[in-house]
Amino acid sequence: xxxxxxIPALINKAETTHDLTKAxxxxxxxxxxYQAELFAAADRVRQKYVGDEVHLRGLIExxxxxxxxxxxxxxxxxxxxxxxxxxxxxVIIDFAVKAQSYGYxxxxxxxxxxxxxxxxxxxxxxxxxxxxxxxxTLSVGEKSREVYRQYRxxxxxxxxxxxxxxxxxxxxxxxxxxxxxxxxRCLNDLKELGYELGTGxxxxxxxxxxESLADDVLFFKKIDADMIxxxxxxxxxxxxxxxxxxxxFELSTKVMAMTRLLLPDINIxxxxxxxxLNPQGRVLALQRGANVVMPNVTEGEYRQMYLLYPxxxxxxxTPAHCRSCITGKIQSIGRRVSETHGYRARRAQQS
Length: 351
Ligand code: 5AD
Ligand code: SF4
Ligand code: FES
Fold this sequence. Notes:
TIM Barrel
């Protein structure tokens, strides 16, 4: 049992100083008596630092082909149950044009680690989309610094690469053949090249501890991330982790709320995986520290084929439907959809 007497004081410390020790973070993540107070504090910090606007990012899942073999992921190369696809560059650009017509100011280009998309192809796609005056977020995995440099020079603004877990040993067990140090090298290169840096973690992966989740939050702070995406691990029946138990919605949102308290002015999405576990997941996340949503703008049958985990939402919906659905949800809680590009609004951190 944790001693709950000091919990309100700790929440207050987090809200006013944005600074906690690892032991304090562990105490707050372990506590179950004052969760509502923790969420309310994260919501106030969100309101104070990034306001009531919610930034929408249109997500294009342009290839589900991946050379990696992460044990948790449905797109891993050994999963033969997946019908694989890759979109032609001009189809991707067309999806971006459509996303813009729905009012999105940012597209997120996401794929598995698909070698077919070499620098020439990516630079072509990035330049064409930049001509639309949209912000571009890339989420295409580990590359060399030189490749990141060329994407950046072509106009990419942001990059998402989750650290997944800061427990190096656990990471290398779950992502066979990958190196945790190289992942950190990627994040440092991206930061130095001037990208807005997005990273994040999964909550509830087998072997993960509360201490390790506290390290994750401290890592986000240390690397000065601009965006943090956090979602529950959801076991996929077509992967080696099929029989494991997944992460919970509550703990995922607690880690997210903690991230808002310690990194008050960053962008934090209400993630798809959260809504896959709880039908109100994104709206609740927006009330527990999040200020971004990434609706899917991939068209047609491809959505069903980009199955990282089972129960993924919106796989039978159209971009137009998702756009009006999410706007309704945002407005239902008294928030509004931003019309800006939604870059990180750095604020001086005062109490
Ligand atoms: N459950 C939840 N999230 C997953 N991801 C991959 N597989 C799963 C899963 N089974 C997440 C990883 C990856 C992101 C694109 O999706 O964190 O970085
Ligand atoms: Fe590939 Fe990313 Fe899935 Fe790993 S998590 S198998 S790198 S798509
Ligand atoms: Fe896709 Fe609601 S956002 S159906």
